[in-house]
Amino acid sequence: MTEDSKNNQLNIELSEQIAEGEYANLAIITHSTSEFVLDFIRIMPGVPKAKVKSRVVMTPQHAKRLMKALADNISKFESVNGSINDVEGGINIPLNFGGPTAMA
User: Fold this and answer.
1) Inside any domain, residue 97
2) CB-CB contact of 51 with 42 (8 Å)
3) pLDDT of residue 22
4) 40 belongs to a structural domain
5) Residue 27, strand partner residues
6) Is residue 104 part of a domain?
7) Which residues pair with residue 57 across a beta bridge?
């Protein structure tokens, strides 16, 4: 390993709490001229209120890199696991997920 490659290494730390991750089943993306905001949301069955579980703010350049990296990873996933079925048209978010209405 050369001295330059040693200087170019990035040490990334991942805490146990962050490593557990957050489940999200909806993402809302908004943008301004200087940033993209990605809100990751969890919608629960029978609950009419959803919570943003995580928000990521990034520059347009990083958003485009993320888009390309995600497209590359999806392509690799599909080459091994088959095509991911896409939802055509608008997405209707069922608040009850098709199950019975929750009662307390």
Assistant:
1) no
2) yes
3) 93
4) yes
5) 40
6) no
7) 37
> Does residue 35 contact residue 59 with C-beta atoms inside 8 Å?
yes
Which residue is associated with the tokens 């069955």? 45
User: Is residue 100 domain-resident?
Assistant: no
Provide the number of structural domains found in the chain.
1
Looking up tokens 């905001």 gives: 37
Alpha carbon 8 to chain centroid, angstroms: 28
Q: What is the DSSP string of 2-13?
A: -HHHHHT-----
CB-CB contact of 98 with 43 (8 Å):
no
CA distances from 93 to 47, 79, 83, 96, 104 (A): 12, 29, 23, 9, 23
Domain of residue 36 covers 22-81
**Interval 34-61: pLDDT, tens:** 999 999 999 988 888 999 999 999 999 9
In DSSP terms, 41 is beta-bridged to 26, 52
Could you list the beta-strand ranges (E) of 2-88.
Answer: 26-31, 36-42, 51-58
